[in-house]
Amino acid sequence: MRQLAILTFVTLDGVMQSPSMPEEDPSEGFEHGGWAAPYWDGVMQQVERHAMSEPYDMVFGRKTYDIFAGHWLGAPKSALSDRMNGARKYVVTSQPDSLRWENSHPINDDVVGEISALKARDGPLLQVHGSAGLIQTLLAQNLIDEFRLWIFPVVVGGGKRLFENGSPPCQLKRTRFEHCGNGVSMQFYRP
């Protein structure tokens, strides 16, 4: 059985919405997009070293998939771009015909059933990037085996949170921890 991990950037107050750029996800009037961008130096190298160097398949909500595809389809060739472009991508979408990034496979009917079936198969780690709505579904169904969090020294006050009201209670054990020189901390947890 394969494991499923989420890889998420969050503020100190738990917001994961729109870390990279203002236009990433302005839904519900969110005006603080790009809050993580001033901290990328050091963080992205840490992400690559600790979360993206081993084989993995990716699971995305559709909005996050479109953002990643828009970047990686034209990215300069590198070890990371080769891994990102070569990995299998499972995408929760109602528009499967519009998946243009290589190795993309739609999940469009029974999200929980299809992700449970993916976990039951042999294969590398399933890694969810961003995808706030999808994470809420996975939390509710207890399908997350590891939380890979990068916590930024920023407070934005409101927005989509990693643990929304109504998230099921759980106890977590920290399995990995490392600081970045810019105040960001990497923390991995398992139930």
Radius of gyration: 16 Å
Largest sheet: 8 strands, mixed
Category by helix and strand content: alpha/beta
Q: Could you give the order of the helices and strands?
A: EHEHHEEHEHEEE
**Global geometry:** globular
Q: Mean pLDDT across all residues, rounded?
A: 93
- Strand arrangement within the widest β-sheet reads 4-3-2-5-1-6-8-7
| Range of strand content | 15-25%
* Straight-line distance between termini: 16 Å
Query: What's the tally of helices?
Result: 5
- Runs in which pLDDT lies below 50 for 5 or more consecutive residues are none
Total number of β-strand segments? 8
The percent of residues in helical segments reads: 25-40%
Account of the protein in words:
The chain has 191 residues and is an alpha/beta fold. Helix content is 26%, strand content 25%. The chain has five helices and eight strands; from the N terminus they run E-H-E-H-H-E-E-H-E-H-E-E-E. The chain has helices spanning 40-51, 62-72, 79-86, 111-120, 132-140; strands at 4-11, 56-61, 89-92, 104-107, 125-129, 146-152, 173-179, 185-190. It has an eight-stranded mixed β-sheet with strand order 4-3-2-5-1-6-8-7, with helices on both faces. Strand 7 (173-179) and strand 8 (185-190) form a beta hairpin. The chain is globular, with a radius of gyration of 16 Å. The model has no long low-confidence stretch (mean pLDDT 93).
